[in-house]
Amino acid sequence: MSNLPSEPEFEQAYNELVSTLDASSLFEKHPEYRTGLKVVSIPERVIQFRVVWEDDKGELQVNRGFRVQFNSALGPYKGGLRFHPSVNLSILKFLGFEQIFKNALTGLSMGGGKGGSDFDPKGRSDNEIRRFCQSFMRELSKHIGADTDVPAGDIGVGGREIGYLFGAYKNYRNLWEGVLTGKGATWGGSLARPEATGYGLVYYVNHMIQYRTNGAETFAGKRVAISGSGNVAQYAALKVLELGGYVVSLSDSKGALVLDGDAKSFSKEEVEKIASLKLKHGYLTEIHASDSEFTSKFKYVEGARPWLQVGSVDVALPSATQNEVSKEEAEGLIAAGCKYIAEGSNMGSTQGAIDVFEANRKEGGEIWYAPGKAANMGGVAVSGLEMAQNSSRISWTFEEVDAKLANIMETGFKICLDTAKSYIPAKEGELPSLVGGANIAGFVKVIEAMHNHGDWY
Q1: Could you give a single Gene Ontology term from the biological process aspect (predicted)?
Q2: What mean pLDDT comes out for the span 264-291?
């Protein structure tokens, strides 16, 4: 691959998958699957384009737009759009590659893809964001559709942006169809979609807890460290509180907000205040400085992630961005007594951190790790349910969608568990490798479909 440019994030995701496949008996039982690995690791299509738009001063601006249509073996390409200055092809390829196998684990008919732009919506007016979205969709609309490629939101792309993108697509194509997910509830969206990733993450971990303790424990009474303070972190925190757990941290790109003194947990009201702040693109340092309740109850650690700041903790839920748990932080979490770590973010842990978690598990240690492609699949699962509702022109209740989400997360957990037991050698009493189980289960499902289609032989 020396003729290719360096793509560190994609290479990390690829190596993480391959390392678990190599450590299992999969290629021993099915040596032909190595050929499938070569094929599935290259996107079916990569689309790059310029996005020209006008700011409020009437000045011309230009950004780069991307869509990586990675794999359509199981259904239309499916994956979010990210608007953030850090966006580049390596990041989108890593996200799209992960999305293939995550979507496979949901059991729904969805392929894998990802897209976005290096546009930064922070500090931009609604009109500037609208003009950017319309220009972005002018090109993207040529390549997507309800049965071809169905994008969703991601970092920097929330309900406002999805609305502008959907309106532009409808105008350019003269079609009202379920081409985007995360739509408003009154125009084709699904109830429970905003909550889905955070709720699903907690449902998945609850199954980990119940399996390990034979049903004797749940989240009740457990100290839970959460990073991030966006959609995923907010709803994960609210579900933890609902189940009787204690939320001890939230964070953003500028620092971490951590319980101080004798305080036991963030409250529902405090999480909701933070949600309101984030809707205005504010930072946690602002609410800590301006709200006396936050000043007295929490300490704000500038430039830090929460993992080494929270003291003793039972559960860690990285829910911000990629590579947010380092090897040193993984060791710190184990020293703090953490028993469960599950990623609400995509590739939330570095390879060094994963190695620490997996070594501890094999040695009979306390920590049990679940990767993002399994633990955070609730968001795309409900996006798939939104697609189904759009196709049928129906709308399910919140309770119906939440029940389907809970069932998908339970089924996904059992698939990861059973696959690990089938392919990964383990000592008596050793917890199964959920990262290995997730990688193998998703990989096998996708490349078997590709083989049936004649994509490799």
Answers
A1: glutamate biosynthetic process
A2: 95
Same domain, 169 and 205: no
Q: What are phi and psi of 25, to 5 degrees?
A: -95, 10
Q: List active site positions.
A: 114
Q: Which DSSP state fits 344?
A: S
pTM of the model: 0.94
Is the pLDDT score of 420 beyond 50?
yes
Task: Consult the annotation and say whether 153 binds a ligand.
Answer: yes
Residue 2 has pLDDT above 70, yes or no: no
With H, G, I as helix, E, B as strand and everything else as coil, classify residue 234: helix
Count of the separate structural domains present in the chain: 2
Residue with tokens 């440019």: 5
Residues 64 and 172 in one domain: yes
Confidence of residue 4 (pLDDT cuts 50, 70, 90): confident
Of 326, 358, 375, the one marking the end of a domain is 375
The strand order across the sheet containing 112-117 reads: 45-54, 60-71, 112-117, 77-83, 149-152
> Are residues 203 and 172 part of one domain?
no
Q: What is the pLDDT of residues 429-456, one digit of tens each?
A: 899 999 999 999 999 999 999 999 999 9
Using DSSP's 3-state secondary structure scheme, residue 54 falls into: strand
Indicate which CATH number applies to the domain containing 112.
3.40.50.10860
* Residue 99 assigned to a binding site: yes
pLDDT in tens, 230-265: 999 999 999 999 999 999 999 999 999 999 988 999
Q: Is 227 one of the annotated binding-site residues? A: no
Q: What is the span of the domain harbouring residue 273?
A: 194-375
Query: How far is the CA of 361 from the CAs of 334, 352, 365, 368, 431, in angstroms?
Result: 11, 14, 5, 6, 7
138 and 171 belong to one structural domain: yes
Rg (CA), the chain: 21
Same domain, 239 and 335: yes
- How many Å apart are CA 165 and CA 179, to the nearest integer? 10
Token pair 């990210």 in the structure block, residue: 82
Is the CB of residue 189 less than 8 Å from the CB of residue 183?
Answer: yes
* Mean pLDDT value of segment 270-296: 94
Annotated binding residue 383? yes
